[in-house]
Inverse folding.
């Protein structure tokens, strides 16, 4: 037992010494490097979180809001620089706004809570993203553009939050012209292989982290993130880290995530979120229903029912275009089809015409400008 303690202590000290030899470019630097100026704003939510919102100016009559997925940030939409979605939209004249949910590296602030010392800061899941963060961001964009509504593009959990918004604050449905839903996450009933196993392990992992007082996961300063980037941050680790980690979770597509670009992904992903967000996702998978956070015995006090209620997707009346992939291990065709059948206003449902299209291609794929962006622009021109 003593040897184990000594080993773990030595390991922790060693890991604490791991630092990046270089600092990756941030969102503004990547956008500037692609030829665009960027505005940055602080948006304050109703419950006091301070969110970073980026803006690439364009035609104010065509505002479009991009929202990232789980353990991700606004960086994901400019990682490919001139071949990125945000830059493609800017090139087409759109007024591009890119949001950051609470807790990630750009939105790790609060009016009076300190994320480093106050556990209450991390008391949120994707419910709060949809109920508090999105309304604050949408209102800010509309106030600054003078538009009555905006188009939106979400990736992965960046779509779940719009479903939460439409179901819990239905007045916002009219403020969304169309939601282009890339690899949407809602139901997790048909996860494949490793993704299914990881979801089952999440409750045990998050319980352990809570016991040791760690309510934040995947932050740049955590041991996990430092180890992950130390092991997987170079081209030499490409084969192991893509085949054994990224592709096992998302679906394999090495042609779209090539070795030269791969270190850029690892330098920016993952970024922080809360344990509670991970727990909520695991509950969605375990219950096989898209429902509010399950507080157990506290449900009666919070919801006036012993079971946390399902989100009423019939209230999500905004126009939605669902884009899915045959090779997506997280957002499976079966689960996206289930979502389509629950929503009242799906204007398009497309399976992307690339057999290996996986869960991460939509934001990091090398050739998305060829077989994904034209679909997005067509949807925006018809419904946006």
């Amino acid at each position: 037992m003593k040897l184990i303690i000594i080993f773990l202590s030595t390991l922790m000290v060693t890991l604490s010494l791991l630092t990046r030899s270089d600092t990756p470019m941030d969102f503004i630097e990547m956008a500037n490097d692609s030829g665009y100026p960027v505005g940055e704003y602080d948006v304050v939510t109703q419950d006091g979180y301070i969110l970073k919102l980026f803006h690439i100016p364009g035609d104010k009559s065509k505002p479009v809001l991009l929202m990232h997925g789980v353990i991700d940030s606004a960086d994901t939409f400019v990682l490919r620089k001139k071949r990125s979605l945000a830059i493609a939209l800017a090139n087409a004249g759109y007024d591009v706004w890119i949001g950051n949910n609470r807790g990630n590296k750009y939105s790790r602030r609060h009016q009076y809570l300190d994320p480093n010392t106050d556990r209450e800061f991390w008391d949120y899941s994707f419910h709060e993203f949809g109920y508090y963060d999105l309304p604050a961001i949408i209102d800010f964009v509309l106030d600054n553009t003078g538009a009555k509504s905006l188009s939106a593009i979400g990736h992965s959990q960046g779509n779940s939050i719009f479903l939460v918004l439409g179901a819990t604050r239905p007045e916002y449905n009219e403020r969304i012209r169309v939601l282009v839903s890339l690899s949407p996450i809602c139901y997790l009933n048909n996860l494949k292989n490793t993704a299914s196993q990881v979801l089952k392990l999440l409750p045990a992992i998050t319980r352990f982290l809570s016991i040791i007082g760690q309510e934040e996961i995947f932050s740049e300063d955590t041991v996990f993130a430092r180890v992950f980037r130390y092991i997987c941050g170079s081209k030499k680790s490409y084969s192991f880290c893509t085949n054994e980690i990224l592709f096992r979770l998302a679906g394999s597509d090495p042609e779209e995530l090539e070795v030269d670009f791969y270190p850029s992904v690892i330098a920016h992903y993952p970024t922080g979120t809360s344990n509670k967000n991970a727990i909520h996702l695991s509950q969605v998978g375990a219950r096989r229903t898209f429902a509010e956070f399950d507080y157990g015995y506290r449900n009666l006090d919070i919801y006036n029912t012993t079971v946390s209620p399902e989100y009423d997707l019939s209230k999500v009346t905004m126009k939605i275009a669902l884009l899915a992939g045959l090779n997506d291990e997280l957002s499976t065709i079966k689960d996206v089809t289930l979502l389509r059948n629950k929503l009242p206003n799906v204007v398009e449902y497309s399976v992307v015409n690339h057999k290996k299209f996986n869960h991460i291609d939509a934001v990091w794929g090398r050739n998305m400008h060829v077989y994904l962006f034209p679909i997005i622009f067509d949807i925006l021109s018809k419904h946006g």
